[in-house]
Amino acid sequence: MHKTLCALSLLALAGLIALLPMALSDYYTGLTIKIMIYALFALSLQLLVGGAGLASLGHAAFFGIAAYFVALLAPQAGPGNMFWLLPGAMIAAMVYAGLTGALALRTRGIYFIMVTLAFAQMAYYVFHDTSVGGGTDGIYLYFRPELRVGELVLLNIDHPYGFYLFTLACLLLTWAFLAMLMRSRFGAALTGIRVNEQRMRAAGFSTYGYKLVAYIVAGGLAGVAGFLYAAKDGFVNPELLAWEQSGLVLLMVILGGTGRLWGAIVGALALTLLQEVFQSQALLGDFAKNWHLPFGLAIIGLVAILPHGLAGLPGLRCRPRGKAGTPKSSASAL
């Protein structure tokens, strides 16, 4: 009964979000799209952090590579075909994730974090210091891709509301995919690796293989977010691959709570809105020029007050109540 009510509540919330642009200005509609893209991006990292216990500081590489793939290969004379651009962006991100993950996952702890950061910076400097993708000036995407078969257009996202609904659909499908994945045997194995990897190896599990697959899948999902970002702004620059971008999405996951998939979405919402508030001259006047200081203090305060993240608040818990002391399974952490 509880699960049914939870599902109905989520469907009602999704329907409400789908209707938001009718009541919002163009600016706030664009802001909502940005939040959804970052929520999808954070969900992809949540698979590593909350699923397998892998804190990566190089996740922006997959985000940026996918965005550049779209901007570089989309035609300038008209809309590109989403039929191959979206899967291509995902595959490009997954290939880089496979190549770098095969090496990075041979390390642990702080060494893993530093290796992922190094690989991301390598990709950053390829686009920043060479003529690939316009160098520091970046590259423009003049037309949003459309889904078509031959001359038949099946989906056109050029209209703002159409792009809004498409972004929302991508976010919901990503969350549903990860929810099913974490309920599967694969998800249970990732949870076991996060809790005690040595015991999982002793039980006969190839933990390296499981982590590599999770790393590649997370890279592909980050590629979807990169595709949407490129289509939204029509502009891609090397800063999308910078370590600050990786740190930002990691903050979203930590702030939202690593124990639940919803945490990534809530964290993306909270962090983006905090940035908007502290950068607003209408609210803070000239002090908005120094917005990094109050923003950082707010993050520190929230993490200190809510050690389990925003998703740990009672109002956001969407799971059956268990007995005290009962360990939390991967399925109940969604």
Automatic annotation (TrEMBL):
<dbReference type="InterPro" id="IPR001851">
    <property type="entry name" value="ABC_transp_permease"/>
</dbReference>
<feature type="transmembrane region" description="Helical">
    <location>
        <begin position="110"/>
        <end position="127"/>
    </location>
</feature>
<keyword id="KW-0812">Transmembrane</keyword>
<feature type="transmembrane region" description="Helical">
    <location>
        <begin position="249"/>
        <end position="274"/>
    </location>
</feature>
<feature type="transmembrane region" description="Helical">
    <location>
        <begin position="84"/>
        <end position="105"/>
    </location>
</feature>
<feature type="transmembrane region" description="Helical">
    <location>
        <begin position="208"/>
        <end position="229"/>
    </location>
</feature>
<feature type="transmembrane region" description="Helical">
    <location>
        <begin position="295"/>
        <end position="316"/>
    </location>
</feature>
<keyword id="KW-0472">Membrane</keyword>
<dbReference type="Pfam" id="PF02653">
    <property type="entry name" value="BPD_transp_2"/>
</dbReference>
<feature type="transmembrane region" description="Helical">
    <location>
        <begin position="161"/>
        <end position="181"/>
    </location>
</feature>
<protein>
    <submittedName>
        <fullName>Branched-chain amino acid ABC transporter permease</fullName>
    </submittedName>
</protein>
<feature type="transmembrane region" description="Helical">
    <location>
        <begin position="61"/>
        <end position="78"/>
    </location>
</feature>
<dbReference type="GO" id="GO:0005886">
    <property type="term" value="C:plasma membrane"/>
</dbReference>
<dbReference type="InterPro" id="IPR043428">
    <property type="entry name" value="LivM-like"/>
</dbReference>
<dbReference type="GO" id="GO:0015658">
    <property type="term" value="F:branched-chain amino acid transmembrane transporter activity"/>
</dbReference>
<keyword id="KW-1003">Cell membrane</keyword>
<keyword id="KW-1133">Transmembrane helix</keyword>
<feature type="transmembrane region" description="Helical">
    <location>
        <begin position="35"/>
        <end position="54"/>
    </location>
</feature>
